Amino acid sequence: MSNADGKAPKHLRLKFKGENTKKKRRHAGDDSSSSRRRRHNPEDNGSPEMWVLPGQATELRGPTFVFHPSDPLPICVSYDATRNRIALQPLDKLEDGGAILDRTPSEVAQVWVTTRVAGATTINLRTGTGEGKFLSCDKHGLVTADREARGPQEEWTPVVFEDGMIAFMNVYEKYLSIDEVAGGQLALRGDSDNVGFQERFYVKIQNKYKQEAHEEERKKGGVLDGPSMDEAATNAIYQTWGAGRSVVSAEDKKGLKRARQDGRLAEALLDRRSKLKSDRFC
Q: What fold characterizes domain 43-238?
């Protein structure tokens, strides 16, 4: 529509003093890396409390929601604080018929807290309700959550797959899995040798913790990539736990013991020589 002079009318919206003028966003032809990041990472501008999938194992931290795409309903790993034990809880159907990845926790019992020792590749999963018990697995594959202190059996190595699912490996190099026990009940086990459907879980974390992990890596000047599969990195992933203590064979232990004994003997000889020299000059 135009006025009598043939010119388009000016915008009649009132502008208040001190009001910021919104700048138009560039869409076409904007090939900057920041624009690409905005397009490829919608979580960057999302709510800090939004539940998102981690893309790297290093992003796993803070409140964590673990669930499995079981049939007919997906189930989540929760904690029954009343009976002090792990519970596999079926998730209700979504009213709008959403996808399985739209699932988010609906109660505190479904949330775990992921922590890690600084510099470690393993994580700890602690209950978000009750007194804070750690998810643990013994050498027989029995999974519990009844320990208040963390140790080797409370360490888990997350393995992230291309489809976004995650497997959890324990200190015995066995995988966490969903197992059917007597009476058709489902339970967690930790003695699986291979990763299949029962060993893969969807894991969601809160967006602010994912961005926190990215920010830490930017400050370090690094990238959120997994370690390369060389011998040193493999040992760091699969043969150490939280405090950096190595899991070695019996022969290696004997060798280390002999090396320590030889080292002590060498130190004793050096001390004796130093003492003899000092006695000569006295």
A: Trefoil (Acidic Fibroblast Growth Factor, subunit A) (2.80.10)
Residue 66 contacts residue 76 (beta carbons within 8 Å)? yes
Give the span between the Cα atoms of 201 and 66, in whole angstroms.
7
Cis-peptide into 74, omega within 30 deg: no
C-alpha distances out from residue 160 to 57, 102, 183, 202, Å? 6, 19, 32, 10
Tell me the Cα Rg of the chain: 28
User: Which residue has tokens 């079926």?
Assistant: 90
> What is d(CA 106, CA 74) in angstroms, rounded to the nearest whole number?
14
Distance CA 155, CA 162 (A): 23
Give dist(CA 276, CA 270) in Å, integer: 10
* Contact between residue 203 and residue 59 where contact means Cβ atoms under 8 Å apart: no
Q: What are phi and psi of 145, to 5 degrees?
A: -145, 70
pLDDT of residue 92: 85
Q: Which residue reads 């018929």 in tokens?
A: 97
Q: Is the pLDDT of residue 155 over 60?
A: yes
Interval 26-43: pLDDT, tens: 444 444 444 444 344 555
Say if residues 209 and 62 touch (Cβ distance below 8 Å).
Answer: yes
CA separation, residue 23 to residues 20, 274, 277 (Å): 9, 78, 82
Compute how many other C-beta atoms are within 10 angstroms of the C-beta atom of residue 222: 10
Contact 195, 175 (CB under 8 A): yes
Structure tokens given for 72: 């007919």
pLDDT digits (tens, 9 = 90+) for 214-266: 888 888 775 444 433 333 333 333 333 333 333 444 554 455 455 555 555 55
Where does the pLDDT of residue 277 fall: very low under 50, low under 70, confident under 90, or very high at 90 and above?
A: low
**Whole-number Å distance between alpha carbons of 151 and 256:** 23
